[in-house]
Amino acid sequence: MPPVARSAAVLVLVAALVAASFSVAATGAEGAPRTAGGRAAPKIGGHWIGSWASMPQLTEPGNMPPPPFTQDDGVFDDATLRQTVRVSAGGRNVRLRFSNAFGGAPLPITKVSVALPAGGKAGVSAIEPGTSRPVTFHGRSATVIPVGAQMVSDPLTFPVAPRSILTVTIYLADGQASTNITSHPGSRTTSYMLAGDHLGDTDLPGATHTDHWYFLSGLEVWAAPTTATAAMLGDSLTDGRGSTTNMNDRWPDQLLDRLQSGPATSGIAIVNQAAGGNRVLNDGLGPNALARLDRDVLAQSGVQWLVVFEGVNDIGTAEAAPAPQKQVADDLIAAYDQIIVRAHAQGIRVYGATLTPFGGNTMYDDQGGYREEARQTVNAWIRVGHRFDAVIDFDRAARDPADPRRLLPSLDVGDHLHLNPTGYKALADAVPPTLFRRAPLPPTFGFN
């Protein structure tokens, strides 16, 4: 069957499953009992895992919702917000996470729904007719998320296929009374907003659009005990700068495609906890990696593996002189060790990815080569320090053999720091799938 026909067939099958799920509303998924609030209670024998995530950030002025959805005293007053996400692992039950981590006021959400997007595509404003389902919170359609908090929805019977796209629509009757709001600017996915309550509308004609996610921070599925999640901790190289809007071709996306194409790793889920400009040691765009590790990795459902690919922004923003660069290299190594210790305490395997080249980048490269020396010091420790449970050599995959200080030209998006989709595929191809096979932890795990 041709790929287009196969995709259409999958969409029809999933839509049929969603429609069929209405008929089991009284008993829940696959005969599971209902809770007092009328929510689906998944059967015993599985667990919740993260299937999609976006790292919550304080929204910068340039990434706020376009007018008129940002006012002097708040955002999204009497407005509908429609967003699409690509799940990694599938399942018959889902639940959503909403974040008010950086909100300057409580976040009152009036109504939420999930649906299948038109044509199964990312970044579209229309949904497939008949697939919209209401989301509840403790049996209620509305919720208020306190400042700094998150809210997890009730479980919902809504079958989603692996690597499929899901639409989440939010209506805020009163908006959020602050211009400090939580978002993920680097969505590389188009979202839509329209004045008024259009939660159940099949399409949003005339809607304003922007390439950011707001408030939505996670999607979980109820999965078999053998299914688990890999978390990616990173910066713009993992967030996908240089990738294609609405095409989901960041390196974690392409790694997911590889993993799920093999029988031994077909049940792996991936959550991408990266943000452009993020650093390991100091706050930048979002809290530093050490500060956000608990929220973005350790508190995520079903995480069994962690890939750490971050540090280039620490090196690139430190002064280009011998002493500061030696200090930042030493501090990065110590920080990696802390991440390993804290993840091991939760039974999570930690894989270290070497830092890719930035030679020729106008902001980070320096004539004295001090930042390159720091990168080499850090990469040497990742490779031979024997602290990570495994090493993923992204440096080797992306560098130019004729000039190892630089990216291979065919992989370079043009700024000599970020990669194009072909470059992100090279990173995905450098990850051994065997790293994500379930295996007992060694007796000395956490003590080496």
What can be said about this structure in brief?
The chain is of the alpha+beta class.
Descriptive account of the structure:
This protein is of the alpha+beta class. Helix content is 23%, strand content 26%. The chain has 9 helices and 25 strands. The chain has helices at residues 3-21, 236-239, 251-260, 289-298, 312-317, 322-344, 370-384, 394-398, 421-429, and strands at residues 47-53, 57-58, 70-71, 74-75, 79-86, 91-99, 107-109, 111-115, 133-135, 143-145, 150-152, 156-160, 165-172, 182-184, 191-195, 208-210, 213-214, 216-223, 228-234, 268-274, 303-309, 349-353, 390-392, 399-400, 403-407. It has a 6-stranded antiparallel beta sheet, with no helix packed on it. Strands 1, 6, 11, 12 and 18 form a 5-stranded antiparallel beta sheet that branches. A 5-stranded parallel beta sheet has the order 20-19-21-22-23, sandwiched between helices. A hairpin with a 2-residue loop joins β24 and β25. α3 (251-260) packs across α9 (421-429), α4 packs parallel to α6 and α6 packs parallel to α7 (370-384). The chain is globular and about 55 Å long. Residues 3-14 and 16-38 have low confidence and may be disordered.
